[in-house]
Amino acid sequence: MSSETYAAVRQTAVWCYRGGSISAEPRINDRIRVPEVRLVGPSGEQVGIVPLAKALELAQEYDLDLVEVAANARPPVCKLMDYGKFKYESAMKAREARKNQAHTVIKEMKLRPKIDPHDYDTKKGHVVRFLKQGDKVKITIMFRGREQSRPELGYRLLQRLATDVEDLGFIESNPKQDGRNMIMVLGPHKKKTEAMAEAREAQAARKAEAKANPGRSQNAAEEGVAESAPAEAESAETPAEASAEA
């Protein structure tokens, strides 16, 4: 390493240590400081090695930017492109990737060993909803007092729940005692990304249906009124018929 290169590296390291940062943005147009570049055309065609001045002249001729895409190559590779449009499209792609990114979420549902049938159905409905969304569910059975001496009640309840939702999930972690609680983890058969994609498709289908049939709800309401009218007329005629029979 030459003394000049060493000095430049040392200066950069000191600058970063003092709170500076190295920009991730590529060099464009006049910021490119090399005598020649390997030029790539707007459509991806290889132009070849040309002087920097010639590359800048071509960029001005095409009304595009000269962007350094491979700074470590010798000579550096530059491409003619609309840099503003490129940055916008890259930002949109990154945003879409974050939107489709699946985060593993563990939901929790707590039950009592002697849970009421109605409460059980309600809790099971929540578990079904979580599994359909592609989330894991941690089921906790809470024991109190003398219930702690009968852990089989909690085990049977967990097995019953796992059987009821076996079409949507599986037992990822078998029931185990944890102090006064018994815990089991259910995992979804469907991946989070698949669940998100299906939810978006269903939402798009509902919007399309609503757009295609904007007066559907209004017609349904009118039909409901029309159906109720004969019933009211019939109920109004009934007393008259009864009085006639009398």
From TrEMBL:
InterPro entries attached here? Answer: T_IF-3_C_sf, T_IF-3_N_sf, Translation_initiation_fac_3, Translation_initiation_fac_3_C, Translation_initiation_fac_3_N
NCBIfam families tied to this protein: infC
Q: Where in the cell is it found?
A: Cytoplasm
Signal sequence, start to end: none
Q: Name one GO biological process term.
A: ribosome disassembly
Q: Which GO terms describe its cellular component?
A: cytosol; membrane
Locate the compositionally biased regions of type Low complexity.
220-246
Q: Extract the ranges annotated as region (Disordered).
A: 191-246
Domain (Translation initiation factor 3 N-terminal): give its ranges. 28-97
Gene3D superfamilies the UniProt entry points to? Translation initiation factor 3 (IF-3), C-terminal domain, Translation initiation factor 3 (IF-3), N-terminal domain
Gene name linked to the record: infC
The task this protein performs is described as: IF-3 binds to the 30S ribosomal subunit and shifts the equilibrium between 70S ribosomes and their 50S and 30S subunits in favor of the free subunits, thus enhancing the availability of 30S subunits on which protein synthesis initiation begins.
Provide the protein name. Translation initiation factor IF-3
Q: Which domain of life is it from?
A: Bacteria
- Quaternary context: Monomer.
State the UniProt keywords alphabetically. Answer: Cytoplasm, Initiation factor, Protein biosynthesis
Question: What GO molecular-function term can you cite, just one?
Answer: translation initiation factor activity
Record field: compositional bias (Basic and acidic residues): 193-210
Q: Which residues form the Translation initiation factor 3 C-terminal domain?
A: 105-188
SUPFAM superfamilies, per the entry: Translation initiation factor IF3, C-terminal domain, Translation initiation factor IF3, N-terminal domain
Family note: Belongs to the IF-3 family.
Q: What is its main location?
A: cytoplasm
